[in-house]
Amino acid sequence: MAVVTVTNLTKRYGDSDAVAGIDFTIEEGEVFALLGPNGAGKTTTVEILEGYRDRTGGHVDVLGYDPADNERAFKERIGIVLQESSVERDLTVREAIDTYGRVYPKRLVTGDLIDIVGLGEKADARVKTLSGGQKRRLEVALGIVGDPDLIFLDEPTTGFDPSARRHAWEMIANLSTLGKTILLTTHYMDEAQNLADRVAVINNGLIVAEGTPDTLGGRETAHTTIRFSLEAALAGELPVDPTLVDGTIVEYRTDDPTAVLHTLTGWAVGRHVALDGLTVTRPSLEDVYLELTDGEER
Amino acid sequence: MKRPSAFALVANQTRYEWRIFWRTPISAFFTVLFPLLIFVVFSLVFGNERIDYLGITTAQFYAPSLAVFSAVSATYTNISINTAYQRDEGILKRVRGTPLPAWIYFAGKILSSIAIAVIGALIMLGAGLAFFGLQVYPETIPTLLVVFFVGVAAFAALGLLVAALAPSGPGATAIANATLLPLAFVSGVFIVPAEKMPTWLNAVASFFPLKHFVEPFVAAFSPAATRASFSWLDLAYLALWGVVSLILAIRWFRWEPPTGGGGRRSRRASAASE
Asked: d(Cα B52, Cα B25) in Å, to the nearest integer?
Protein backbone atom coordinates (compact mmCIF):
# COMPACT_ATOMS: atom_id res chain seq x y z
CA MET A 1 0.00 0.00 0.00
CA ALA A 2 1.36 3.40 -0.93
CA VAL A 3 1.95 5.66 2.06
CA VAL A 4 2.96 8.64 -0.07
CA THR A 5 1.75 9.39 -3.57
CA VAL A 6 3.04 12.46 -5.36
CA THR A 7 1.71 13.32 -8.80
CA ASN A 8 3.05 16.11 -10.97
CA LEU A 9 3.98 18.21 -7.94
CA THR A 10 5.11 21.76 -8.65
CA LYS A 11 6.24 24.64 -6.48
CA ARG A 12 7.00 28.04 -7.88
CA TYR A 13 8.83 30.83 -6.08
CA GLY A 14 8.58 34.00 -8.11
CA ASP A 15 9.97 33.17 -11.53
CA SER A 16 11.71 29.94 -10.68
CA ASP A 17 10.41 26.43 -10.26
CA ALA A 18 11.79 24.94 -7.08
CA VAL A 19 9.90 21.78 -7.92
CA ALA A 20 9.07 21.41 -11.60
CA GLY A 21 6.66 18.48 -11.78
CA ILE A 22 7.72 15.36 -9.95
CA ASP A 23 6.05 12.00 -9.37
CA PHE A 24 6.91 9.29 -6.91
CA THR A 25 5.31 6.87 -4.51
CA ILE A 26 6.58 5.42 -1.27
CA GLU A 27 5.34 2.02 -0.16
CA GLU A 28 4.63 1.03 3.40
CA GLY A 29 7.75 0.04 5.32
CA GLU A 30 10.07 1.43 2.68
CA VAL A 31 13.07 3.68 3.20
CA PHE A 32 12.93 6.14 0.33
CA ALA A 33 15.74 8.61 -0.28
CA LEU A 34 15.52 11.87 -2.18
CA LEU A 35 19.10 12.44 -3.25
CA GLY A 36 20.27 15.67 -4.79
CA PRO A 37 22.60 18.64 -4.53
CA ASN A 38 21.78 21.66 -2.37
CA GLY A 39 19.00 23.67 -3.91
CA ALA A 40 17.72 20.77 -6.01
CA GLY A 41 14.24 20.93 -4.48
CA LYS A 42 14.53 18.20 -1.84
CA THR A 43 13.60 20.26 1.19
CA THR A 44 10.83 22.07 -0.67
CA THR A 45 9.34 18.73 -1.65
CA VAL A 46 9.58 17.29 1.84
CA GLU A 47 8.16 20.43 3.45
CA ILE A 48 5.15 20.23 1.15
CA LEU A 49 4.60 16.64 2.27
CA GLU A 50 4.96 17.66 5.93
CA GLY A 51 2.36 20.41 5.59
CA TYR A 52 4.74 23.35 6.03
CA ARG A 53 4.40 24.65 2.49
CA ASP A 54 1.61 25.03 0.02
CA ARG A 55 2.16 23.54 -3.38
CA THR A 56 1.66 25.41 -6.63
CA GLY A 57 0.23 22.44 -8.51
CA GLY A 58 -0.12 18.69 -8.59
CA HIS A 59 -1.55 16.14 -6.23
CA VAL A 60 -0.16 14.91 -2.93
CA ASP A 61 -1.52 12.12 -0.74
CA VAL A 62 0.22 11.27 2.52
CA LEU A 63 -1.38 8.51 4.63
CA GLY A 64 -4.70 9.38 3.01
CA TYR A 65 -4.46 13.07 3.92
CA ASP A 66 -3.73 16.20 1.96
CA PRO A 67 -0.91 17.72 4.03
CA ALA A 68 -1.98 21.23 3.02
CA ASP A 69 -5.06 20.81 5.23
CA ASN A 70 -2.81 20.64 8.31
CA GLU A 71 -5.15 18.26 10.11
CA ARG A 72 -4.40 17.23 13.64
CA ALA A 73 -5.06 13.55 12.81
CA PHE A 74 -2.44 13.79 10.06
CA LYS A 75 0.15 15.31 12.39
CA GLU A 76 -0.50 12.52 14.86
CA ARG A 77 0.70 9.95 12.36
CA ILE A 78 3.84 11.59 11.04
CA GLY A 79 7.16 12.35 12.67
CA ILE A 80 9.34 15.18 11.43
CA VAL A 81 13.05 15.62 11.88
CA LEU A 82 13.70 19.00 10.35
CA GLN A 83 16.90 20.02 8.71
CA GLU A 84 16.89 23.26 10.65
CA SER A 85 15.36 23.42 14.06
CA SER A 86 16.44 23.24 17.61
CA VAL A 87 15.32 22.10 21.00
CA GLU A 88 14.93 24.36 24.03
CA ARG A 89 18.40 24.71 25.48
CA ASP A 90 17.28 24.81 29.08
CA LEU A 91 15.22 21.64 29.14
CA THR A 92 16.75 18.29 29.95
CA VAL A 93 16.62 15.52 27.39
CA ARG A 94 13.95 13.72 29.40
CA GLU A 95 11.84 16.86 29.86
CA ALA A 96 11.98 17.69 26.16
CA ILE A 97 10.86 14.19 25.19
CA ASP A 98 8.09 14.23 27.80
CA THR A 99 6.86 17.67 26.80
CA TYR A 100 6.67 16.86 23.11
CA GLY A 101 5.47 13.30 23.69
CA ARG A 102 2.40 14.36 25.64
CA VAL A 103 0.78 15.90 22.58
CA TYR A 104 0.40 12.54 20.81
CA PRO A 105 -2.38 10.00 21.37
CA LYS A 106 0.11 7.14 21.39
CA ARG A 107 3.70 7.65 22.37
CA LEU A 108 6.85 5.76 23.01
CA VAL A 109 7.94 5.38 26.61
CA THR A 110 10.46 8.13 27.31
CA GLY A 111 13.04 5.81 28.85
CA ASP A 112 12.88 3.39 25.92
CA LEU A 113 13.19 6.20 23.43
CA ILE A 114 16.23 7.63 25.21
CA ASP A 115 17.84 4.21 24.86
CA ILE A 116 16.87 3.87 21.20
CA VAL A 117 18.67 7.10 20.36
CA GLY A 118 21.56 6.29 22.67
CA LEU A 119 21.24 9.24 25.03
CA GLY A 120 20.98 7.17 28.22
CA GLU A 121 23.88 8.91 29.90
CA LYS A 122 22.55 12.33 28.97
CA ALA A 123 18.91 11.78 29.99
CA ASP A 124 19.00 14.40 32.72
CA ALA A 125 21.48 16.76 31.09
CA ARG A 126 20.37 20.12 29.76
CA VAL A 127 20.10 20.28 25.99
CA LYS A 128 22.67 23.08 25.84
CA THR A 129 25.34 20.71 27.15
CA LEU A 130 24.87 18.17 24.34
CA SER A 131 27.27 17.84 21.43
CA GLY A 132 26.04 18.51 17.90
CA GLY A 133 25.53 14.83 17.22
CA GLN A 134 23.70 14.29 20.50
CA LYS A 135 21.38 17.20 19.75
CA ARG A 136 20.57 15.68 16.40
CA ARG A 137 19.79 12.37 18.06
CA LEU A 138 17.47 14.15 20.45
CA GLU A 139 15.76 15.71 17.45
CA VAL A 140 15.29 12.24 16.00
CA ALA A 141 13.83 11.15 19.36
CA LEU A 142 11.36 14.06 19.22
CA GLY A 143 10.50 13.12 15.65
CA ILE A 144 9.52 9.57 16.60
CA VAL A 145 8.14 10.09 20.11
CA GLY A 146 4.57 9.95 18.78
CA ASP A 147 5.20 6.48 17.31
CA PRO A 148 4.56 7.75 13.77
CA ASP A 149 3.75 5.60 10.75
CA LEU A 150 5.80 7.84 8.48
CA ILE A 151 9.04 9.57 9.43
CA PHE A 152 10.57 12.49 7.55
CA LEU A 153 14.32 12.85 7.95
CA ASP A 154 15.64 15.95 6.23
CA GLU A 155 19.41 15.64 5.85
CA PRO A 156 19.76 13.78 9.13
CA THR A 157 23.56 13.66 9.20
CA THR A 158 24.65 16.91 7.59
CA GLY A 159 27.55 18.28 9.60
CA PHE A 160 28.30 15.00 11.37
CA ASP A 161 31.72 13.51 11.80
CA PRO A 162 32.15 10.00 10.35
CA SER A 163 31.52 8.13 13.59
CA ALA A 164 28.42 10.16 14.43
CA ARG A 165 27.14 9.39 10.93
CA ARG A 166 27.64 5.66 11.49
CA HIS A 167 25.65 5.89 14.72
CA ALA A 168 22.89 7.81 13.01
CA TRP A 169 22.74 5.26 10.23
CA GLU A 170 22.40 2.42 12.69
CA MET A 171 19.60 4.25 14.40
CA ILE A 172 17.75 4.90 11.14
CA ALA A 173 18.21 1.28 10.10
CA ASN A 174 16.67 0.28 13.45
CA LEU A 175 13.64 2.47 12.81
CA SER A 176 13.21 0.77 9.50
CA THR A 177 13.25 -2.67 11.11
CA LEU A 178 10.38 -1.48 13.33
CA GLY A 179 8.33 -1.26 10.14
CA LYS A 180 8.31 2.52 9.86
CA THR A 181 8.11 4.13 6.47
CA ILE A 182 10.91 6.64 6.11
CA LEU A 183 11.42 9.50 3.68
CA LEU A 184 14.99 10.63 3.82
CA THR A 185 16.68 13.48 2.01
CA THR A 186 20.41 13.62 1.66
CA HIS A 187 23.19 14.86 -0.53
CA TYR A 188 25.47 12.04 0.53
CA MET A 189 25.61 9.12 -1.89
CA ASP A 190 26.90 6.72 0.74
CA GLU A 191 24.00 7.61 2.99
CA ALA A 192 21.45 6.77 0.32
CA GLN A 193 23.40 3.63 -0.55
CA ASN A 194 23.46 2.46 3.07
CA LEU A 195 19.96 3.27 4.13
CA ALA A 196 17.58 3.44 1.23
CA ASP A 197 15.50 0.73 -0.37
CA ARG A 198 14.82 3.11 -3.21
CA VAL A 199 16.45 6.33 -4.34
CA ALA A 200 15.18 9.16 -6.47
CA VAL A 201 17.77 11.61 -7.71
CA ILE A 202 16.41 15.12 -7.88
CA ASN A 203 18.09 17.95 -9.72
CA ASN A 204 16.76 21.38 -10.68
CA GLY A 205 13.35 20.42 -9.37
CA LEU A 206 13.02 17.27 -11.46
CA ILE A 207 13.54 13.60 -10.73
CA VAL A 208 16.29 12.55 -13.11
CA ALA A 209 16.58 8.91 -12.05
CA GLU A 210 14.86 6.51 -9.74
CA GLY A 211 15.66 2.98 -8.64
CA THR A 212 17.31 0.87 -5.99
CA PRO A 213 20.80 1.98 -5.01
CA ASP A 214 22.18 -0.95 -7.04
CA THR A 215 20.27 -0.31 -10.23
CA LEU A 216 20.09 3.46 -10.22
CA GLY A 217 21.01 4.99 -13.55
CA GLY A 218 21.59 1.54 -15.07
CA ARG A 219 24.45 0.71 -12.72
CA GLU A 220 23.89 -3.03 -12.92
CA THR A 221 24.28 -3.08 -16.69
CA ALA A 222 26.94 -0.42 -17.02
CA HIS A 223 30.42 -1.09 -18.35
CA THR A 224 33.14 -2.26 -16.07
CA THR A 225 36.34 -0.26 -16.13
CA ILE A 226 39.72 -1.99 -16.11
CA ARG A 227 42.68 0.25 -15.57
CA PHE A 228 46.41 -0.11 -15.05
CA SER A 229 49.64 1.58 -15.99
CA LEU A 230 52.18 0.28 -18.42
CA GLU A 231 55.33 1.55 -20.12
CA ALA A 232 54.17 3.51 -23.13
CA ALA A 233 56.39 1.45 -25.42
CA LEU A 234 54.52 -1.74 -24.57
CA ALA A 235 51.06 -0.34 -25.19
CA GLY A 236 51.21 -1.29 -28.85
CA GLU A 237 51.74 -4.94 -27.98
CA LEU A 238 48.55 -5.30 -25.88
CA PRO A 239 46.45 -8.28 -27.04
CA VAL A 240 43.20 -6.34 -26.76
CA ASP A 241 42.80 -2.79 -28.06
CA PRO A 242 42.37 -0.40 -25.10
CA THR A 243 39.49 2.04 -24.93
CA LEU A 244 41.85 4.75 -23.82
CA VAL A 245 45.59 5.28 -23.45
CA ASP A 246 46.72 8.36 -21.60
CA GLY A 247 50.49 8.40 -21.16
CA THR A 248 51.18 5.27 -19.19
CA ILE A 249 47.56 4.81 -18.14
CA VAL A 250 45.63 2.17 -20.03
CA GLU A 251 41.89 1.86 -19.65
CA TYR A 252 39.29 -0.60 -20.93
CA ARG A 253 35.53 -0.27 -20.66
CA THR A 254 33.90 -3.57 -21.24
CA ASP A 255 30.74 -5.63 -20.79
CA ASP A 256 32.84 -8.78 -20.50
CA PRO A 257 35.46 -8.09 -17.88
CA THR A 258 36.24 -11.77 -17.17
CA ALA A 259 37.44 -12.53 -20.68
CA VAL A 260 39.29 -9.27 -21.12
CA LEU A 261 41.09 -9.66 -17.81
CA HIS A 262 42.02 -13.26 -18.59
CA THR A 263 43.56 -12.25 -21.90
CA LEU A 264 45.39 -9.28 -20.41
CA THR A 265 46.82 -11.09 -17.40
CA GLY A 266 47.80 -14.09 -19.53
CA TRP A 267 49.66 -11.74 -21.87
CA ALA A 268 51.36 -9.91 -18.99
CA VAL A 269 52.56 -13.07 -17.28
CA GLY A 270 53.91 -14.47 -20.57
CA ARG A 271 55.62 -11.18 -21.40
CA HIS A 272 57.00 -10.78 -17.81
CA VAL A 273 55.53 -7.32 -17.38
CA ALA A 274 53.44 -6.03 -14.49
CA LEU A 275 50.07 -4.36 -14.90
CA ASP A 276 50.85 -1.76 -12.23
CA GLY A 277 47.97 -0.48 -10.13
CA LEU A 278 45.47 -2.83 -11.75
CA THR A 279 41.89 -1.98 -10.80
CA VAL A 280 38.56 -3.36 -11.91
CA THR A 281 35.62 -1.10 -11.05
CA ARG A 282 31.95 -0.76 -11.68
CA PRO A 283 30.53 2.74 -11.66
CA SER A 284 29.82 3.80 -8.10
CA LEU A 285 26.56 5.41 -7.10
CA GLU A 286 28.61 8.56 -6.89
CA ASP A 287 29.66 8.31 -10.55
CA VAL A 288 26.06 7.82 -11.57
CA TYR A 289 24.94 10.65 -9.36
CA LEU A 290 27.55 13.07 -10.66
CA GLU A 291 26.64 12.20 -14.19
CA LEU A 292 22.95 12.72 -13.46
CA THR A 293 23.41 16.02 -11.70
CA ASP A 294 26.26 17.28 -13.91
CA GLY A 295 28.40 17.47 -10.81
CA GLU A 296 26.57 20.56 -9.71
CA GLU A 297 27.36 22.28 -6.48
CA ARG A 298 28.92 19.37 -4.70
CA MET B 1 -6.33 5.59 20.77
CA LYS B 2 -7.24 8.47 22.96
CA ARG B 3 -6.15 12.02 22.40
CA PRO B 4 -4.83 13.88 25.40
CA SER B 5 -7.52 16.22 26.77
CA ALA B 6 -7.32 19.92 26.06
CA PHE B 7 -6.96 20.53 29.78
CA ALA B 8 -3.98 18.20 30.05
CA LEU B 9 -2.37 19.80 27.02
CA VAL B 10 -2.85 23.33 28.34
CA ALA B 11 -1.35 22.22 31.65
CA ASN B 12 1.56 20.61 29.83
CA GLN B 13 2.28 23.73 27.79
CA THR B 14 1.93 26.05 30.78
CA ARG B 15 4.36 23.97 32.82
CA TYR B 16 6.78 23.93 29.90
CA GLU B 17 6.73 27.73 29.44
CA TRP B 18 6.98 28.24 33.19
CA ARG B 19 10.05 26.04 33.36
CA ILE B 20 11.78 27.75 30.46
CA PHE B 21 11.14 31.15 32.03
CA TRP B 22 12.67 30.37 35.39
CA ARG B 23 15.64 28.68 33.79
CA THR B 24 16.47 31.86 31.89
CA PRO B 25 17.97 33.95 34.69
CA ILE B 26 18.05 37.15 32.67
CA SER B 27 14.29 37.19 32.10
CA ALA B 28 13.56 36.23 35.70
CA PHE B 29 15.83 39.07 36.84
CA PHE B 30 14.26 41.76 34.70
CA THR B 31 10.74 40.64 35.47
CA VAL B 32 10.89 40.10 39.20
CA LEU B 33 14.06 41.49 40.73
CA PHE B 34 14.59 44.60 38.65
CA PRO B 35 11.21 46.22 39.53
CA LEU B 36 11.82 45.26 43.15
CA LEU B 37 15.19 46.95 43.01
CA ILE B 38 13.62 50.11 41.59
CA PHE B 39 11.03 50.00 44.35
CA VAL B 40 13.62 49.72 47.11
CA VAL B 41 15.80 52.42 45.58
CA PHE B 42 12.90 54.84 45.06
CA SER B 43 11.63 54.25 48.57
CA LEU B 44 15.07 54.91 50.01
CA VAL B 45 15.85 57.87 47.76
CA PHE B 46 12.53 59.59 48.39
CA GLY B 47 12.56 58.54 52.03
CA ASN B 48 9.11 57.02 51.84
CA GLU B 49 7.57 60.36 52.61
CA ARG B 50 4.12 61.54 52.00
CA ILE B 51 3.65 62.87 48.48
CA ASP B 52 1.62 65.96 49.11
CA TYR B 53 -0.38 66.20 45.92
CA LEU B 54 -1.33 62.49 46.08
CA GLY B 55 -1.90 62.35 49.79
CA ILE B 56 -0.10 59.01 50.11
CA THR B 57 3.43 57.83 50.90
CA THR B 58 6.01 57.00 48.27
CA ALA B 59 5.70 53.27 48.93
CA GLN B 60 1.92 53.46 48.78
CA PHE B 61 2.36 54.67 45.21
CA TYR B 62 5.36 52.67 44.06
CA ALA B 63 4.44 49.25 45.42
CA PRO B 64 1.31 48.98 43.26
CA SER B 65 2.69 50.89 40.26
CA LEU B 66 5.81 48.75 40.12
CA ALA B 67 3.74 45.61 40.74
CA VAL B 68 1.97 46.52 37.50
CA PHE B 69 5.32 47.17 35.84
CA SER B 70 6.54 43.75 36.93
CA ALA B 71 3.32 42.12 35.71
CA VAL B 72 3.60 43.84 32.34
CA SER B 73 7.23 42.67 32.03
CA ALA B 74 6.13 39.13 32.84
CA THR B 75 3.47 39.15 30.15
CA TYR B 76 4.17 41.69 27.41
CA THR B 77 7.97 41.74 27.42
CA ASN B 78 8.45 38.09 28.27
CA ILE B 79 6.05 36.70 25.66
CA SER B 80 7.15 38.97 22.85
CA ILE B 81 10.88 38.36 23.31
CA ASN B 82 10.80 34.66 24.12
CA THR B 83 8.38 33.80 21.35
CA ALA B 84 10.39 35.68 18.74
CA TYR B 85 13.60 33.96 19.83
CA GLN B 86 11.86 30.60 19.77
CA ARG B 87 10.84 31.29 16.22
CA ASP B 88 14.41 32.27 15.25
CA GLU B 89 15.68 29.02 16.69
CA GLY B 90 13.16 26.89 14.83
CA ILE B 91 11.37 25.80 17.98
CA LEU B 92 8.06 27.19 16.76
CA LYS B 93 8.51 25.34 13.50
CA ARG B 94 9.00 22.11 15.42
CA VAL B 95 5.86 22.76 17.44
CA ARG B 96 3.95 23.40 14.22
CA GLY B 97 4.92 19.92 13.01
CA THR B 98 3.27 18.27 16.01
CA PRO B 99 -0.46 17.71 16.55
CA LEU B 100 -0.57 20.44 19.22
CA PRO B 101 -3.36 22.88 18.32
CA ALA B 102 -2.12 26.44 17.99
CA TRP B 103 -4.62 27.82 20.51
CA ILE B 104 -3.25 25.49 23.19
CA TYR B 105 0.26 26.66 22.46
CA PHE B 106 -0.83 30.30 22.91
CA ALA B 107 -2.87 29.46 26.01
CA GLY B 108 0.19 27.87 27.64
CA LYS B 109 2.24 30.99 27.00
CA ILE B 110 -0.46 33.32 28.30
CA LEU B 111 -1.26 31.29 31.43
CA SER B 112 2.37 30.77 32.35
CA SER B 113 3.14 34.46 31.95
CA ILE B 114 0.12 35.40 34.04
CA ALA B 115 1.31 33.07 36.79
CA ILE B 116 4.71 34.76 36.68
CA ALA B 117 3.00 38.15 36.78
CA VAL B 118 1.15 37.10 39.93
CA ILE B 119 4.42 36.10 41.56
CA GLY B 120 6.11 39.36 40.58
CA ALA B 121 3.20 41.45 41.87
CA LEU B 122 2.96 39.50 45.11
CA ILE B 123 6.66 39.93 45.79
CA MET B 124 6.39 43.65 45.19
CA LEU B 125 3.32 44.14 47.34
CA GLY B 126 4.74 41.77 49.97
CA ALA B 127 7.92 43.86 50.19
CA GLY B 128 5.77 46.96 50.56
CA LEU B 129 3.73 45.40 53.34
CA ALA B 130 6.73 43.99 55.18
CA PHE B 131 9.19 46.85 54.97
CA PHE B 132 7.57 50.05 53.77
CA GLY B 133 4.29 50.27 55.60
CA LEU B 134 2.09 49.62 52.59
CA GLN B 135 -1.61 49.83 53.46
CA VAL B 136 -4.08 47.50 51.78
CA TYR B 137 -7.75 48.38 51.91
CA PRO B 138 -9.74 45.13 51.97
CA GLU B 139 -12.80 46.61 50.29
CA THR B 140 -10.73 47.29 47.14
CA ILE B 141 -9.41 43.76 46.78
CA PRO B 142 -12.10 42.58 44.31
CA THR B 143 -11.36 45.62 42.14
CA LEU B 144 -7.64 44.94 42.36
CA LEU B 145 -8.07 41.37 41.23
CA VAL B 146 -10.33 42.24 38.32
CA VAL B 147 -8.07 45.05 37.11
CA PHE B 148 -4.98 42.91 37.53
CA PHE B 149 -6.23 39.89 35.59
CA VAL B 150 -7.81 41.88 32.78
CA GLY B 151 -4.60 43.92 32.58
CA VAL B 152 -2.17 41.02 32.42
CA ALA B 153 -4.35 39.11 29.96
CA ALA B 154 -4.42 42.16 27.69
CA PHE B 155 -0.65 42.63 27.92
CA ALA B 156 -0.05 38.93 27.28
CA ALA B 157 -2.09 39.22 24.08
CA LEU B 158 -0.17 42.35 23.15
CA GLY B 159 3.07 40.42 23.70
CA LEU B 160 1.87 37.80 21.23
CA LEU B 161 1.10 40.53 18.74
CA VAL B 162 4.61 41.99 19.04
CA ALA B 163 6.03 38.46 18.59
CA ALA B 164 3.89 38.04 15.47
CA LEU B 165 5.11 41.32 13.98
CA ALA B 166 8.75 41.42 15.10
CA PRO B 167 11.26 40.40 12.45
CA SER B 168 13.48 38.51 14.90
CA GLY B 169 14.35 37.94 18.54
CA PRO B 170 16.58 41.02 18.79
CA GLY B 171 13.90 42.96 16.91
CA ALA B 172 11.26 41.92 19.44
CA THR B 173 13.58 42.87 22.31
CA ALA B 174 14.03 46.33 20.83
CA ILE B 175 10.31 46.80 20.20
CA ALA B 176 9.27 45.57 23.66
CA ASN B 177 11.75 47.75 25.54
CA ALA B 178 11.39 50.81 23.33
CA THR B 179 7.63 50.75 23.78
CA LEU B 180 7.31 49.81 27.43
CA LEU B 181 9.82 52.17 29.06
CA PRO B 182 8.71 55.50 27.54
CA LEU B 183 5.11 54.47 27.96
CA ALA B 184 5.73 53.63 31.61
CA PHE B 185 7.01 57.16 32.17
CA VAL B 186 4.06 58.91 30.56
CA SER B 187 1.52 56.50 32.02
CA GLY B 188 2.41 57.13 35.63
CA VAL B 189 4.40 54.04 36.52
CA PHE B 190 7.67 55.62 37.64
CA ILE B 191 6.50 59.16 38.19
CA VAL B 192 3.10 60.69 38.37
CA PRO B 193 2.93 62.86 35.27
CA ALA B 194 2.81 66.48 36.14
CA GLU B 195 -0.31 68.48 35.53
CA LYS B 196 1.66 70.47 33.01
CA MET B 197 2.45 67.50 30.81
CA PRO B 198 1.56 68.53 27.23
CA THR B 199 -1.97 67.56 26.28
CA TRP B 200 -0.81 65.68 23.23
CA LEU B 201 1.49 63.53 25.37
CA ASN B 202 -1.35 62.88 27.72
CA ALA B 203 -3.47 61.88 24.75
CA VAL B 204 -0.76 59.46 23.63
CA ALA B 205 -0.60 57.93 27.09
CA SER B 206 -4.36 57.62 27.20
CA PHE B 207 -4.45 55.88 23.86
CA PHE B 208 -2.19 53.05 25.01
CA PRO B 209 -3.36 50.49 27.56
CA LEU B 210 -0.75 50.88 30.29
CA LYS B 211 -2.28 54.00 31.84
CA HIS B 212 -5.64 52.24 32.03
CA PHE B 213 -3.99 49.41 33.93
CA VAL B 214 -1.75 51.29 36.34
CA GLU B 215 -4.09 54.14 37.34
CA PRO B 216 -6.99 52.05 38.63
CA PHE B 217 -4.58 49.64 40.28
CA VAL B 218 -2.71 52.39 42.14
CA ALA B 219 -5.98 54.14 42.99
CA ALA B 220 -7.15 51.03 44.82
CA PHE B 221 -4.29 51.58 47.26
CA SER B 222 -5.37 55.10 48.12
CA PRO B 223 -7.26 55.84 51.30
CA ALA B 224 -11.00 56.01 50.70
CA ALA B 225 -10.95 59.80 51.04
CA THR B 226 -8.74 60.29 48.00
CA ARG B 227 -9.60 57.18 46.00
CA ALA B 228 -10.84 57.80 42.51
CA SER B 229 -13.93 55.80 41.75
CA PHE B 230 -13.33 52.63 39.81
CA SER B 231 -13.94 53.13 36.11
CA TRP B 232 -15.47 50.39 34.03
CA LEU B 233 -14.32 52.38 31.05
CA ASP B 234 -10.65 51.77 31.89
CA LEU B 235 -11.36 48.08 32.24
CA ALA B 236 -13.33 47.85 29.01
CA TYR B 237 -10.61 49.74 27.16
CA LEU B 238 -7.94 47.36 28.48
CA ALA B 239 -10.06 44.37 27.47
CA LEU B 240 -10.55 45.84 24.01
CA TRP B 241 -6.80 46.17 23.57
CA GLY B 242 -6.42 42.56 24.62
CA VAL B 243 -9.06 41.17 22.31
CA VAL B 244 -7.92 43.14 19.27
CA SER B 245 -4.29 42.20 19.95
CA LEU B 246 -5.14 38.53 20.24
CA ILE B 247 -7.12 38.51 17.00
CA LEU B 248 -4.36 40.28 15.09
CA ALA B 249 -1.66 38.13 16.69
CA ILE B 250 -3.37 34.93 15.58
CA ARG B 251 -3.95 36.36 12.13
CA TRP B 252 -0.35 37.47 11.63
CA PHE B 253 1.46 34.82 13.63
CA ARG B 254 4.46 33.17 11.91
CA TRP B 255 5.90 29.82 12.93
CA GLU B 256 8.84 29.63 10.59
CA PRO B 257 12.23 31.18 11.23
CA PRO B 258 13.08 34.22 9.10
CA THR B 259 14.26 33.03 5.69
CA GLY B 260 17.81 33.45 4.49
CA GLY B 261 20.54 30.87 4.41
CA GLY B 262 22.98 32.97 6.44
CA GLY B 263 21.79 32.20 9.94
CA ARG B 264 20.99 28.67 8.96
CA ARG B 265 24.45 27.93 7.73
CA SER B 266 26.23 29.46 10.65
CA ARG B 267 24.10 27.62 13.16
CA ARG B 268 24.67 24.39 11.34
CA ALA B 269 28.38 25.08 11.24
CA SER B 270 28.51 25.82 14.94
CA ALA B 271 26.57 22.65 15.72
CA ALA B 272 29.06 20.65 13.71
CA SER B 273 32.06 22.16 15.42
CA GLU B 274 30.87 21.46 18.93
From this structure: 39
pLDDT at position B92: 94
Cβ distance of B267 and A75 shorter than 8 Å: no
Summarize pLDDT for A187-229 with one digit per residue, the tens. Answer: 888 888 889 999 999 988 999 888 888 877 676 667 788 899 8
Of B136, B157, B163, nearest in space to B67 by CA: B136
State the pTM of this model. 0.84
Q: Which of B268, B242, B246 is nearest to B257 (CA)?
A: B268
A7 φ, ψ to 5°? -125, 115
Does residue B266 register a pLDDT over 50?
no
Number of domains in chain B: 1
Mean pLDDT of B1-6: 88
Residue A179 has a CB neighbour count (10 Å cut-off) of 9
Nearest partner of A153 among A127, A173, A131, judged by Cα: A173
CA distance to A70, A164, B34, B52, per residue, from B38 (Å): 47, 51, 6, 21
The chain B residue lying nearest A48, using CA atoms, is B97
Nearest chain A Cα to B259, which residue? A84
Higher pLDDT, A200 or A248: A200
Q: Name the more confident of A219 and A119.
A: A119
**Cβ atoms of A207 and A49 closer than 8 Å:** no
- Report yes or no on B1 lying in a domain: no
Q: Band of the pLDDT at B58, cuts 50, 70, 90?
A: confident
Range of the domain at B21: 6-273
d(CA A143, CA A159): 19
In whole angstroms, what separates CA A146 from the centre of its chain?
Answer: 24
For residue A71, the 8-state DSSP code is: -
Nearest to A88 among B4, B91, B93 (CB): B91
Q: Which of residues 30-59 of A touch B (CB under 8 A)?
A: 50-52
Which amino acid does the sequence have at A24?
A: F
In CATH, which of 3.30.565.10, 3.40.50.300, 2.60.40.1820, 3.30.1160.10 is domain A2-219? 3.40.50.300
* pLDDT score of B168 more than 70: yes
The verdict on residue B263 lying in a domain is yes
| pLDDT tens-digit series, residues A60-82 | 999 999 999 989 999 999 999 98
Length of chain B counted residue by residue: 274
Distance (Å, whole) CA A187 – CA B29: 45
Answer whether residue B267 is part of any domain: yes
Q: In B, what residues contact A, Cβ < 8 A?
A: 1-4, 8-9, 12, 16, 19-20, 23-24, 86, 89-91, 93-94, 96-101, 256-257, 264, 267-269, 271-274
User: Would you state the pLDDT for residue B165?
Assistant: 96
DSSP letters for B3-25: PPPHHHHHHHHHHHHHHHHHT-H
Comparison of pLDDT for A101 and A193, the residue scoring more: A101
pLDDT score of A248 more than 90: no
Interface contact B100-A103, CB threshold 8 A: yes
**To 5 degrees, how large is the angle CA B173–CA B174–CA B176?**
65
Residues A110-120 as b/e (b if ≥16 CB within 10 A, e otherwise) read beebbebbbbe
8 Å CB contact of B91 and A102 = no
